[in-house]
Amino acid sequence: MNALAFLIFLLLSGLVSAQESADPMPEILILTTGGTIASRTDAPLIAGPALVQAVPELLDHAEIKVEEFSVIGSSEMTPDHWLRLAKRINEIFTEKPDLAGIVITHGTDTMEETAYFLNLTVKHDRPVVLVGSMRSSNEVSADGPGNLINAVRVAVDEQAAGQGVLVVLNEDISAARDVWKTDNRRVQTFGASNVGHVGTVDPDGVRFYHRSLQPHTKDSEFDVSKIGVLPEVYILSDFSGIDQTVVTGFGRQAMDGLVIRTFAGGRMSKGMQAGLESIADHGIPTVVTSRVPGGRIVDAPDYAFPAVVSNGQQDNKARILLMLALATTSDLTEIQRIFDTY
Ligand code: ASP
Asked: Which entry of 76, 110, 174, 264 is 20 to 30 Å from 69 by CA?
């Protein structure tokens, strides 16, 4: 009996059903928020469903559902957007136990903030992958479609579960804790200063080489389900020659917490130190970060005011962690523990 006859025999005998042998495709939800990936150089941002319909190759990897969350550039993202997005993702994962993962299309300008906030507040270990592009959809060599396909490929890959929130761009996979935008123009803009990318998306498959070891998602202690408004945390950057009155004036703002972006190693100008000493009695929990992306502050100077020292988090991410910490405590020892943990 030749091969064809044998196959017909198997099909007729019901041993192999063409239907049974076809595994169902994993389901991925694409939450769209806006950004350059949804933009055209000569027209308004593309609405969510149209963005996805423009990339039919997505269907080679998953059954795709689309939900439009917002249609904004990511420079317009606010802590309220982060909070609502985290709550929506937790609600979706709870309601859809069979959903394989979520891909979020997002602007690259503040993608690292949204990714970091979600990394600390999504209470599930199924993949959440943020993706964007550096070129508009109608520019020559637009990078959006390829990035979106790669983001879905990562989201359906079984290695991606439990990795925390991920960012995919330019065939690189980055962990939310460490990713930052390093270039204003280049498609390889995302770097991860201390640890590098955690994996790659290659034509022959998704590869992971590292994982983020600090607690995230299900292992994070932060629960935003009952938070209506996040604490207000401001960032103040040191600069050569700053006058202490700049700091004292800033200190009169109504804020719940303060992040200082210092020179390397936590070292500050005399004006910044004098200013912070003068507002120390305001009791504003203050976190010191370094403007230098690599490494962390070790042996910080002996400040004449109470301060928490960041654990390598840059100012924009230290702000997010301080917001979440202040939602539960204002005790500096406890906040230092939180920074040393995450
Ligand atoms: N140029 C940005 C982007 O790459 C715009 C934004 O962040 O929304 O998406």
From this structure: 174
pLDDT in tens, 75-114: 999 999 999 999 999 999 999 999 999 999 999 999 999 9
Q: For 168, how many CA atoms within 13 A lie in the half-sphere containing its CB?
A: 33
Residue 36 is a catalytic residue: yes
Of 182, 211, 183, the residue nearest 198 (C-alpha):
211
Assigned CATH class of 233-341: alpha beta
Ligand 1 within 6 A of 144 CB? no
Domain ranges of the chain: 15-219, 233-341
| Residue pLDDT, tens place only, 181-238 | 999 999 999 998 778 999 999 999 999 999 999 999 999 999 999 999 999 999 999 9
**Burial status of residue 127 (CB atoms within 10 A of its CB: 0-12, 13-18, 19 or more):** buried
Catalytic residue among 32, 33, 36, 286: 36
Q: Which CATH number fits domain 15-219: 3.40.1010.10, 3.30.420.40, 3.40.50.1170, 3.90.190.20?
A: 3.40.50.1170
Write down the pLDDT at residue 9: 57
Strands (E), 60-137: 63-68, 101-105, 128-131
Q: Please state the pTM of the whole predicted model.
A: 0.92
* Residue whose CB lies within 8 A of the most ligand 1 atoms, among 108, 179, 316, for a mutation test: 108
Following CA atoms 93, 94, 98, 99 in sequence, which dihedral angle do they give, to the nearest 10 degrees?
-20
Of all residues in the chain, the percent with pLDDT exceeding 70 is 94
